[in-house]
Every structure is written in structure tokens, then in C-alpha cells.
Records
---
Amino acid sequence: MSTPEVACPTCSAMSPWSSSNPYRPFCSERCKLIDLGGWFEERFRIPGQPAPDADGEPQSTPSSPDTEPGTLQ
Ligand SMILES: [Zn+2]
């Protein structure tokens, strides 16, 4: 009989779906932790609040006084 295989949700690697793999359907503990980490981030995101990187770019500053045209002397 053959051991069914399942694709790891994290890295898509095929791993045996058996009791020998305690991390199934993940291929390894590392992939399981990665997936749980992403899951936690989703849950901890407060509904109604925009994602930190969704509104406004932190790098773009509105007109720096140092580079104001006309004041070059
Ligand atoms: Zn994996």
C-alpha cells in the first residue's frame, strides 16, 4: 500500500501524509510555524483600521524646505 502525499501549504513540497510526519499537512516544523505566523498576523489585524503600509508612504515627505526652489544662493 502507498502512503498518500500532500502538498505543503507553505512551500508546496510533497510530503507523506502519515503519522511519521507530525507536521502534516506541512512538510516540516519550519513550514508549519511560517504558516501559523501568517495566520496570527491576519487575526491580530484590527478590523476597520487600514494596514500600516496601505495608507500613505512613510518615505514621501511633503516638500522638504531644503530643496525648495528659489532659495538656492
Ligand atoms: Zn514545506
---
Amino acid sequence: MDQVILGKTKIKVNKNGFGALPIQRIEKKDAVYLLQKAFYNGMNYFDTARWYTDSEEKLGAAFSWIREKIIISTKTGAQTADVFWQELETSLTNLKTDYIDIYQFHNPSFCPKPGDESGLYDAMLEAKKQGKIRFIGITNHRQTVARKAIDSGLYDTLQFPFCYLASEEDLQIVNDAKANDMGFIAMKALSGGLITDSQAAYAYLRQFDHVAPIWGIQRENELDEFLSYQENPPMLTDAMEAKIAGDRKELAGNFCRGCGYCMPCPQGIEINNCARMSLLLRRSPSASLLSAEGQAKMKKIEDCIHCDQCKEKCPYGLDTPELLRKNYEDYKTFL
Ligand code: SF4
Ligand code: SF4
């Protein structure tokens, strides 16, 4: 079974981390079953967030009795120290624990530092002093903030999107995190569903011994797929290399990752799916995308008032309204 040491934390986790965002969408009993099955089959690292509605509660229900046997990271999107403390207490209650292994700032637009006016990093230090958290982490989709977090030396871990579609700049961040002894937690290892070959995704990431991917898991067959890689880790084959090269060519450049940070849209447009519809149509089952409901969602693009809120919030610098327009044109042709 592949293992990863998370940098200076010295925490050792299974290479298969469990991303607990998707378990929001399933019933509690089903989530508890999935989480416990993951644990009994060797997974020991679970990542969640205060923003993932009841995900923390489900983790608490599954693991409170074996707390010390697993590693939990969660996240706070707090913008002020007061909210930070409220969220930390809520997370501890939900997770039925008195400590969090890695507490992360959730995609902040800046890199919190001691003494800055937000007071967030000072609150982190105080929480660590009180024993409520063990290590301080940060998650981000922006290269600029990730780079500042690495250079600051203030963070034990960095959670950043990393998959085989990574750019040279992304790779530099991955390598610099290692050079600075930071744990590297890879989110979006399937690029929000655009990578459909999980074996190739796993095999690619396996080349980086310091990278701990967290796979978003909602269904038992998805869990089984990743569990099978523990016994038989996929190796990069020529066929996989060819597939990766093809995907890089097709998906290179400015594609929507489906992260949803540009939302909500005042016109109710489901941007995180509509802005990558052309790719979804060609890379995943299309029946629901083309259903009456799917068509209604795409038609809402006609209501765009070009307020540019989404464009300003997109961490990838995408021209989101233009992307929506192009995807809608293509969708109508596809229909
Ligand atoms: S530009 Fe259009 S899609 Fe973007 S937030 Fe404004 S209304 Fe919504
Ligand atoms: S447009 Fe940007 S922010 Fe919005 S879902 Fe896509 S990648 Fe994320």
C-alpha cells in the first residue's frame, strides 16, 4: 500500500485520501457505511470542510469511537477571528472530537499571516496552543496565494489542485512545496470529473512521493475502484501516457474546472456545470445533460446580465460569461 508523509507534520497517510465533499449528497447511513468501509480497507485520511454542509457530522458519526486511528483535516472559510472560533467549535462538535489534525484556511483570497488585520493566522496559532488543532494548513485554487503560502514558511500543508493536466507553473508549486517540507494534498485529481480514467490519474500522481491525493467519493463502486489500487497500484503504461497526452491536448488552456467559486450567480445560472458543458457532453454520459431539466439550465444562460461577478471571482482567470456563451452555442448545436 503506497503511503505519503505530509511534510513537516510527519503524519503518514495512505496515498488514497478520502475527499468528503460528495458525501453531502447521500443519506447519513450510506455515508457512514462508505466511510467505515474505507477505513476498514486501509484508508486513514479524510478531508472535509465547514462549507460541506453535513459532511463533518457524517464523519463524526462514522469515526468518533476510533478517532485516534484516523487523520482528519477540515477547513474554515472564516474572514474574521470571531467567525474562525465559531467555525472551529462547530467543526469539533460535528466531528465529535476535541482536536483536528490539520485545520486549513479554505481558499482565502490572500495568504493570512501573523499580525495582519484579519487576525486569522493569530487565531490559528492560539487554537494550536490550546490543543484544538495539531497543524496549520491552507487550501487554494490560485497559484499566487499558493506561492505566497509556500514562501511564507507559515504553513504545514498546502492543498492545491493537481492532476495530470497540471501546467508547468502548477508543477513548480508541487515541487516547491516539497522543497519547503510542506505536506502536499492534491485536490481535483480527476479535474472535477473531466478525467475519466482514474487508473491513469492515480498512476500519474504516484510518481510524486510527497503528494497525497484526496478522491471525492460518493458511491461504493468509486470507493471500490480506489481501494483496488491499494493492492495493485496502477503503473504508468504507454497506453496511459498516450491517453494523458491526448487529454492534455484536448483540455489544455482555459477550461472550467467546475469548482463553483464564481457562484452564486444573481441570475441563477449553474455556472460550474454550464461553463464546461461542451467537455462534459463529450466525456461523460450525456442523457441527463440533454434532458428537459438540463436544457432548462442551459437556457438560463440567455438571462446573463454580464455583471462580470463570476469573471472577477474565478481563480483561474477565466472569462466566464464568454465561456458560458460558447458552451451554450455548442450545446444548441449538439442538441
Ligand atoms: S456575468 Fe452572467 S453568469 Fe456571470 S454572475 Fe453575472 S449574470 Fe451570472
Ligand atoms: S468559471 Fe472559474 S470559478 Fe467558475 S466553476 Fe469554472 S473554474 Fe470555477
